[in-house]
Structures are given as structure tokens and as C-alpha cells.
Amino acid sequence: MASTYHELYMKVRGALRRVGVESAALEGREIVCCAADKSKEEFYRDRQLYASDGIEQAVEALLQRRLRGEPVAYLVGQWEFFGLPLYITPNVLIPRSDTEVLAEQAITYLKGIDGSQRVLDLCTGSGCIGIALASEVEDCRVVLADSDEKALEVARQNVRLHRLGQRTAVLRLDALSPPLPSLGLGTFHCLVSNPPYIPTGDIPELDGSVRDYEPHLALDGGEDGLRFYRTILRDWKAVLQPMGAVLLEVGIGQSDAVLRLMQREGFGDLEWFEDTQGITRVVMGRLYTEI
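and the corresponding C-alpha cells:
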């Protein structure tokens, strides 16, 4: 029997709810929109129309993949971050609302600076943070940097999607290696990063949708999860302007350790910010000591 788009959506939403997917409503809509090649607006406009057999089959195929654990963002090839649609592939982490805290605080900081601002987004992945900054702060110039060329290709796609090519650059840089003068990076008002921070030994215990599908290169923070924080704060402060700021996303229970590292490396005016669950998710400091 033929089904309307709304009926297909209700079927998918119900199946996802039965297996405990918290965002079943959102994911159900995304799956139907992807199968039907419709925008969200077109889905709501056409929800009482009947879908073709081919679309019903495509919806069912996507649903079965999701029920096996594959994240919906990888199924549909895009996700939203800070109100911006982004291309997403299994080569990058899926942007999460927790990371919007980092973008929000960086935007607030940058808007308090007179004139143009330069930002370095290390471990950029999809480019979600840097693209949000460039989109929200008119005078902002952003370098999106990552060590993985496959991730950088996704970032380039997102730069093109939002027509930010004149105010962003995409570079292959390794956060675990000191910046070389020959790179000619110049200095930055702000460094932002959501680095890998999962302790290596904890990765096998992650939820299957993360452990089995998201790139371990973007998850593994070394034995204690702090490997990237140590190198970024020690080596990459060299590209910050005097009183420049560093803003870092941190994992649950890591904020105190990262704040101590910041203090040891000469950062002051230390602040921390919570996500919507009351978990400290972002730490911030300004560079006081001379390099």
C-alpha cells in the first residue's frame, strides 16, 4: 500500500524510538528527506502527498542501516552546526551541539576586538567551528587546519558551500608538530580547537555508533586523553599575538587538567563554560608571558 511522506516519517520515527534513539523525530525527518531528495521545507509542504515505491524502498534501506548503528549524519551526508548546513562524511566527526559552546564563546571574544581578526582552527575536521566564526563575524579571517587530507577535502566543500573562500584558507597542518617559521602562518588573535581527547583505552567502550563509524584519528587523545592539549598549548602558542586567546573543547572531567596546562604555559584570565547539561565543555585563556 502506498504511503504518504508523513506516514513514512511516522514509521521511521517509531522504529527509531523503539530502539531508544533520543533524536528519533529529527532523524526520521532527515532519512525521509534524504531518500526523497527533498529539503525540510519541501518535506513539510508535501507531507500529505504519496511517495513512489522507489522512495519507500530508499527510506527502508536507510532505516535498516540506521538500526544497525550507522549515524544518520553519514547516511544523509550532511548535518547542521550553529544553524549552518554542512557536508559530512565518515572521514570527519559529526558536529555536535556541545561544540556550539566553543563557537559561541569564540564569536563573543572576536566581536570584542576592533578591526579584523585572524583565527586558527586546529584539528578542524569538517571545518564546522571555523566556518561558524567566519559566518558570524564579518571581519574574521580563518585558517582551517588539519593533518588529514580527507578531512580537509570535506572542509573545502563546506567553505565552498557557504561561499567563504575569500575569508578562509584550508591548510594541512599537524597539531602534534610545532609550527615552522617557513610556513609563514603569521600571528593570530585567537586559536580554537576541538582536538581528539578520548583516552586510547576508552575507545573500545564508546557507543557503537561512535566507535564503529567515526574516525579514530579524530577521537584518540593518547593514553590520558591530553596529548593534543599539551602540544597545542606548548608549541602553538608561538602563533598567538600577545594577549591572544586560546579556546579548547574538553571532554568530561578534563577541564581542571587542561586549565592547569594552560596556566603552566603562561595563559591567564582563565575561564570555563558549560554545555546545556551543565558539563564544563570549553576552557579559555589569554597568553600573558612572552614566547
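(Above: one complete record from the training split.) Residues 50 and 184 are 57 Å apart (CA to CA).
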